[in-house]
Automatic annotation (TrEMBL):
InterPro entries xref list: HTH-type_LysR_regulators, LysR_HTH_N, LysR_subst-bd, WH-like_DNA-bd_sf, WH_DNA-bd_sf
A GO CC annotation given for this chain: cytosol
Gene3D superfamilies hit by this protein: Periplasmic binding protein-like II (3.40.190.10), Winged helix-like DNA-binding domain superfamily/Winged helix DNA-binding domain (1.10.10.10)
Protein name: LysR family transcriptional regulator
PROSITE patterns: HTH_LYSR
One Pfam family here: HTH_1
UniProt superkingdom: Bacteria
Entry similarity comment: Belongs to the LysR transcriptional regulatory family.
Keywords for the protein's UniProt record, in alphabetical order: DNA-binding, Transcription, Transcription regulation
Keyword Iron: no
Domain HTH lysR-type: 8-65
Length: 326
């Protein structure tokens, strides 16, 4: 009758590898923080369970024999896998005690973020939320300084990080409402943005932000050749200059909602559609981690956009295109 193999004792396997690597029971015991007797007993038990000797007892220091070499070749992957399993269990246990660290780009944190925290944070799960620019958030994800990230354009080179599409929004031209009212005929002209770009300078987001880089590419594509005169990291100061008729901007619905106290003073003109005409949002998380939270985030974000932000924006900015936020 064929003998059923005995499962390997991982502690005994660890002792076996230590003896092979250090060359003696004494050195292996020192590395593992055990007595020499304990290491010797582990090796003996391992040989007994596997029904074969693992060392050439005639050599000094002891060297693994053919069976020992075969086991040594397989041992490292087994021990590495055991460590990963232990770390994963530790991460899961830790997740119950520590807040989930959620990093978001500013426009998302300031608009959808509060609804997310209100709906998903509670006694069983606390969320620590902070915002930043996409490049910084991506770096924090790679460094494990955050657990989940909501960001825009990404360039991931890590197959362990999953990118889940969230939503997209169109770039729109933003101008002072007073400026547009003085040129009433432009309000219903599909190419009104061209007259706008011919007359006013472009007020930009800084090129160190992803949205700034995207707007620059789109502006070049549209043939907008405006000197770099005013540049801002945030939407608030950008719209303050727009409302003062000092220029126009290219922004997005979520950014406008973030700075909604300016909505009475600005007007929106649609821009031509195309590959460069939209900003995409994604949720990033590590493979096998926080899957349920990410699924909840996607579903809740859709509800907030469909039932809260989009209707309010359409009421405040009637010229906003229907496809501006999808």
């Amino acid at each position: 009758m064929r003998r059923i193999p005995t499962p390997l004792d991982l502690r005994a396997l660890q002792a076996f590898v230590a003896v092979c690597e250090t060359g003696s029971m004494t050195a292996a015991a020192r590395r593992l923080g055990l007595s020499q007797s304990a290491v010797s007993q582990s090796i003996a038990a391992l040989e007994r369970e596997q029904g074969a000797g693992l060392f050439d007892r005639d050599s000094r220091p002891p060297r693994p024999n053919r069976a020992g070499l075969a086991l040594l070749e397989l041992a490292s992957p087994l021990l590495d896998h055991a460590k990963r399993v232990s770390a994963r269990i530790g991460d899961a246990s830790l997740a119950l005690a520590l807040p989930l660290r959620l990093g978001c780009v500013d426009s998302f944190a300031a608009t959808v973020g509060p609804e997310l925290i209100r709906a998903m944070s509670g006694p069983a799960r606390q969320i620590a939320l902070w915002s930043g620019l996409t490049p910084g958030l991506s770096a924090q994800m790679h460094a494990r300084e955050v657990d989940v990230v909501v960001c825009t354009q990404t360039a991931l080179n890590d197959t362990r990080i999953v990118e889940v599409p969230l939503f997209s929004e169109a770039f729109v031209a933003v101008v002072s409402r007073g400026w547009l009212e003085e040129r009433e005929a432009l309000s219903h002209d599909a190419s009104a943005w061209r007259a706008l770009a011919d007359e006013l300078p472009l007020i930009r987001y800084t090129a160190r932000s992803v949205i700034g880089q995207q707007v620059d590419r789109f502006a070049r594509h549209l043939g907008i050749d405006s000197p770099r005169r005013y540049e801002f990291d945030a939407t608030d100061p950008l719209l303050s200059l727009v409302s003062a008729k000092l220029g126009f901007a290219i922004s997005t619905p979520l950014c406008l909602w973030q700075a909604r106290h300016y909505l009475d003073e600005i007007a929106v003109l649609p821009l031509p559609e195309g590959r460069l005409a939209r900003r995409e949002f994604f949720v990033l998380h590590r493979q096998g981690e926080w899957n349920d939270f990410v699924d909840e985030t996607v579903a809740l974000t859709r509800r907030v956009l469909d039932h809260l932000i989009r209707p309010a924006l359409m009421r405040a900015v009637p010229t906003l295109p229907d496809h501006a936020l999808i």
